[in-house]
Every structure is written in C-alpha cells, then in structure tokens.
Amino acid sequence: ATALLLLARRTDLRRISLDTPDFTDIVLPLEDIRHAIAIDFDPLEGYIYWTDDEVRAIRRSFLDGSGSQFVVTAQIAHPDGIAVDWVARNLYWTDTGTDRIEVTRLNGTMRKILISEDLEEPRAIVLDPMVGYMYWTDWGEIPKIERAALDGSDRIVLVNTSLGWPNGLALDYAESKIYWGDAKTDKIEVCNCTCIFYFMKLWNVVALF
C-alpha cells in the first residue's frame, strides 16, 4: 500500500508521498477551496473529505482531484474537524458556529445532530470505529478533550487541565493512545485513551496551525 500524508493548507489540498526520498508533494487540482480546515480519507471508496470554513460546506473528491462534489451545504456555519467512520460508512464533523457535532452518511443523507450542549468551540474530531468511540477537542473558555460513543451517548471529559487551545487530534490505535497539539501552549501531548496516564510528549513546537 502507498503511504500518504493528506494536508489541508487553507487554499489547497495536498497529497504528500511518504514512500519517496523527497516526499513528493502534489497539489490536488480542485477549484474554489477558500479556507480548508480539516481533511480525512475513506480507504474503501477512495474519497477524501474536507471542511471549508469560508465556503461553509463539506466536500469530497478522489485522491487525484476528480469526482469533486459537495456533501453538506445546508445549516452549516463554520465546519471544522472532520472524521470518516470507514466501518459504518458515516461522516462526523464539528461546527464552531453552531457548536454542534453532527453525523451523516458518506453521501450526505440521514443527517443527525449528536451533541449540541456544553460545546463552546469544538475543533478536531477523531474516531475509533472498532471500539465505538469518538474524541474531540473544545478550546472554549474551559478547554477540554472529550469522548463519547459514536451515537453521542456516554459522554465524558478526558482532559480539562493544563490546556490552552487544544487543536489537532490523532489516535494511535495499536497503543490505545491519543495525541493532541495545543496552539496556545505550543505543545504536543499524549495520554492513553482513558487519560489515566497523561504526560507531555513534545514542547516548544512552532506554528501548530
């Protein structure tokens, strides 16, 4: 399998090869990308999905930029984090304008609001479909990292201390660890997925976003 890094860089989307010595960087031939925030990939159908804050939409295309289409355009204010459930074939996203976490099928049908209470500035979101959890960051007045079941139930706060602007999230499925970048403290931190063991991984990171 080809190892790739997908990057949303505001006005373009990039596909970066991790298999080549020079890390070949290809800009996808897509139009009208104004403020891309987050990106994710569906390995089964080969679509990439991304949020665009200025267009106020969620879009998708294939890895070569073909097949571009809008997935969600209505009742969306400031779409931010996005995550593909490649098992159940659902798409999750956060909206910092409506302060909601929503889900839809990958084609934009059967849309549902999962969480709409006690959210201030929901940002990144990641999924663990095999276990049945979603994780997200919130960098509101009381910044925190939370977890809930994929249907929005069983919601708990994992981390709510020593946070500034918790931003990007990444899951290590094999080790059951969750990593996040903090754009205020300029740190990358990690804990296990229950956050019983919590420690700083890196610090003094420049320009996290």
TrEMBL record:
Keywords: Disulfide bond, EGF-like domain, Glycoprotein, Repeat, Signal. SUPFAM superfamilies: YWTD domain. Pfam families: Ldl_recept_b. LDL-receptor class B repeats lie at residues 46-88, 89-131, 132-175. This is DUF5050 domain-containing protein. GO terms for biological process: nervous system development. The keyword Signal applies.
